[in-house]
Amino acid sequence: xxxxxxxxxxxxxxxxxxxxxxxxxxxxxxxxxxxxxxxxxxxxxxxxxxxxxxxxxxxxxxxxxxxxxxxxxxxxxxxxxxxxxxxxxxxxxxxxxxxxxxxxxxxxxxxxxxxxxxxxxxxxxxxxxxxxxxxxxxxxxxxxxxxxxxxxxxxxxxxxxxxxxxxxxxxxxxxxxxxxxxxxxxxxxxxxxxxxxxxxxxxxxxxxxxxxxxxxxxxxxxxxxxxxxxxxxxxxxxxxxxxxxxxxxxxxxxxxxxxxxxxxxxxxxxxxxxxxxxxxxxxxxxxxxxxxxxxxxxx
Amino acid sequence: xxxxxxxxxxxxxxxxxxxxxxxxxxxxxxxxxxxxxxxxxxxxxxxxxxxxxxxxxxxxxxxxxxxxxxxxxxxxxxxxxxxxxxxxxxxxxxxxxxxxxxxxxxxxxxxxxxxxxxxxxxxxxxxxxxxxxxxxxxxxxxxxxxxxxxxxxxxxxxxxxxxxxxxxxxxxxxxxxxxxxxxxxxxxxxxxxxxxxxxxxxxxxxxxxxxxxxxxxxxxxxxxxxxxxxxxxxxxxxxxxxxxxxxxxxxxx
Lengths: 299, 253
Known about the structure:
The structure holds 2 protein chains of 2 kinds.
Chain A: E1 10-19, E2 22-32, E3 37-41, H1 48-55, E4 63-68, H2 76-79, E5 82-85, H3 97-105, H4 114-121, H5 136-148, E6 154-158, H6 166-181, E7 185-190, H7 193-199, E8 202-207, E9 210-215, H8 217-222, E10 227-232, H9 237-241, E11 246-252, E12 255-260, H10 263-273, E13 278-284, H11 287-298
Parallel strand pairs in A: 3-7, 3-8, 5-6, 6-7
Antiparallel strand pairs in A: 1-2, 1-4, 8-9, 10-12, 10-13, 11-12
Chain B: H1 9-28, H2 31-51, H3 57-89, H4 92-98, H5 105-131, H6 139-166, H7 172-186, H8 198-203, H9 208-219, H10 227-252
Helix pairs in contact in B: 1-5, 2-3, 2-5, 3-5, 3-6, 3-7, 3-9, 5-6, 6-9, 6-10, 9-10
C-alpha cells in the first residue's frame, strides 16, 4: 500500500502492464521507503522484473505511473542516485573488469573509488581479467560492483545471488547489509526465501501481477496459520496426516514432520498416542511456507 | 538526504571519450571482428591493386578508392550490427538505459569506434598503395579520400544499427554478410560497373555503397561523379536507417 510517510524513493501507482495477451502487472502499488531493504518475492512470471523495469524507466506502464525519487524514471537526474544489477545484464566480454568499472564509475557524479567498489564486491583481484574469462559467479560479482560504484541512494538487485556459491552469496549478503547500514535503500528480488528472511526489512509478495501481501518478514510469516512439529516417533505419517488439524505429515528416517493448523490439539494427541515420542521441535512456519501458501491461494 | 552531485563538463568529456575508446578497444580485442575488418581490404588491395595491376598506376588508384569504400562499410555493418544485436539480446542495452548514461554516449561511442576503424583502414590502404601500388596522389586528393572514408563509414553505421535492432544475435552476422558482399559487388567495388551487364549497371545507384564508391573514386581523381548527388543520397539513406532503428529501439529496447 502507498506509504503515508516521507516521499518514497521509488514507487508504482496503480500500474498495469501487459505484453500482448500476457498480463504482467495488474494494478500494482508499491512504494520503496528511503532506507532499508525491501524484498520483492514471487514465483516466475509474477511480474518482479517488470516492476523493476518500470521503476527504472526501461518500460512504460499501460496505465498508472512509475516514479523514481519523485520524478520521471526516464530522466537522468533520478537515475544518478540509483545502482542497478539486472537479471540478464552481461557485459562486453573483451573488456577488463577494471575498465568496465572505471567506465560505469564515470557515469556518476559522486562515485566510490574503483578500488573500493572492487573490494566491496570481492573482485579486487580480478580487475585485470577480461570479463568473458570470468566464471559465472565472478561475472555476477563484477555486475554487483558496477551497481554499487555510483554510491547510490537506492540499489536495484534483480536476483543477485543466482549462480553464486554459498561463500560468495554470504559475502554479497554482508556487503548488502553494510550498504543498508550506510543508509542505502535496496530493492531485492529473489527466489531464495532465506535470502529475503535474512536481509529484508519489508517484503512484498507478488503473484500473477498483483500484490498478494506486504509487510515485515514477521508480518508475512504471521499470515500463515501453520506450525511445524518435528519429532522422532513410531507413528505412521499417513495415519497422522488424516487427523483433524493436520495439514500434512511426512516421515523420513524415523523423523515425523507434521504441518499443523492447530498445533496445540495435534501436539496433545501426538504425545498421547506415542509414549516413546522424543526429540520434539515446534516451530512457526518460515517465510517459505507463508510464501507458498500466499502464491498458491492466488493461483 | 544527499543531494545529487554535479557532473562537470570535464567529467562529461571524460565519459564520452572513455566510452568511445572502450568501444574501439572492445572490438579490436575481438579477433573474429577486428581481423577481417583490418586485413580483408589490405589483402584485396595487394591482390587487385598490386599483383594483378602490373604497374598500372590507374588500376592501383582505382583499387585504392574501391577498397577504401569497401573497407569502411565493415565497422558499421559488423561492429555495430552484431554488437547491438548481442547487447540488446543479452541485456547490456537495458543496463545502459538503466544506468545514468547520458544521451548519445552509447551511439556516439559506436560511431567513434567505426570512424577510428575507418582511419586505420585508410592508413593501411594508403601505405600499401604508395609502397606497393606506386600510387601518387596530391595532398588534396589524399585529404578528400580520408574525408570520404571517415564520413562514408557513417551510412553503414546507420545500416548496422538497423540490422542490430532487427536481427537476433544469432542471425546478425549472416544478415550483415548478406548485405556486405552482394552490395559491394553490385555497387561496382569489385569489378568496374562498365564491365557489368547493363541491368546491374542501371540499378547500381540504388545501393548506398555505389555512391560511396563514386565519391572515393572521385577523390583519387578517377571519375567525375556528381558529388552532391552522391552526398545527398548517402545522407538520406543514413537518416532513414537511423530513424527506423531508433524508433525500433524505443519500442522494443
